Amino acid sequence: MPDLPVPELLELDRRHVWHPYGPMPGRVEPLVVEAASGVRLRLADGSGELVDGMASWWSAIHGYNHPVLNEAAREQLGRMSHVMFGGLTHEPAVRLAKLLVDMSPDGLEHVFLADSGSVSVEVAVKMCLQYWRSLGRTGKQRLLTWRGGYHGDTWQPMSVCDPEGGMHELWSGVLPRQVFVDAPPAEYEEAYAESLRAAIAEHADELAAVIVEPVVQGAGGMRFHSPAYLRVLREACDAHDVLLVFDEIATGFGRTGALFAAEHAAVAPDVMCVGKALTGGYLTMAATLCTARVADGISRGEVPVLAHGPTFMGNPLAASVACASIELLLGQDWLAEVKRIEAGLREGLAPARDLPGVRDVRVLGAIGVVQLDHAVDMKAATDAAVREGVWLRPFRDLIYTMPPYVTGDGDVARIARAVCAAAREG
Ligand code: PMP
Asked: Could you say which residues bind substrate here (predicted)?
């Protein structure tokens, strides 16, 4: 099907295509993928296939070209690929909302279907700010979060990303001014918990919500922390009239060894964002869930609607694939698969501990991370992984993998070898 010769395609790409986080015109030559199936990406230059250690930015949990997801998309395409969602509804969206409510932590009852993780965080923030305005507590319009987080690339999410040395530092003077506390330590420390309580108490009058990535801070640094901090947040938020938002966009749908990372602590947020693996990485969709308390509060306001409704909200094609993806996940022993990958990564990444320049090796669920004591040489590290037949996308001082759950043992071992090779050469 693609009949542009690869060199010509790359030249046009360099001239015209703006890649995520890329300069314009592009300086780094990307690999051209012509097809993907299972856990393998097939390259257009004829050099063969790569095992995908990234699951397309952590979303393709069932792998590519999956017959069940293909069929859901095909079937829905024959009905309608899109229809406006204002004043109309459809079965894929309704079924998806019900599935999400049933599988999510207790109390989350209402679902806003957005088209990307960043937008689902925008919606979450809007919900929280509007909730307090509706109740007449107009001073409560700020957010508290911990440093080292990442919540997306649109305006409000950027304001709660890591403010120091993070991707959005450029905008630090103009973004909404939020309250930052230190990132949580890996293990539970009472002194840190106390500092969290104190910060929430101190800023309670101006805080609409606390927003955090539970258990794993992803794109901000691939750090893991004790789930016990989530209970501390829940209690402090309840004590001081502050809403609690969990951004489960990276952690949701089993990635950490629980369906949602909040389950590790048995706490439920007031608002929860999901995305990435929601459609098994097939289509662009995310969701913001909230409790009846939040929805009722908003509907009691002077403006009793959530004023958010861009054109492609509630897309039926994406919703239909999301339903199939969730049913596929829940219909299998997904935990056994995630644990199997966890065991494979623990074993395969252990040798990285002895490599020079390696600061830390950590594994949780289907997430494996090697942290260096220096900034990674992206090109050298990526090339080393490609030579091992694996696709990785290192950043900052991190080489990591979040593979599809269908990655077989041999391929998990291969990914781990590639991570070690990248750590050695990057
Ligand atoms: N929140 C978290 C925790 C994420 O990991 C990401 C994406 N890396 C986002 C939000 C933004 O999602 P999206 O890229 O779909 O806009």
From this structure: 57, 150, 276, 309, 393
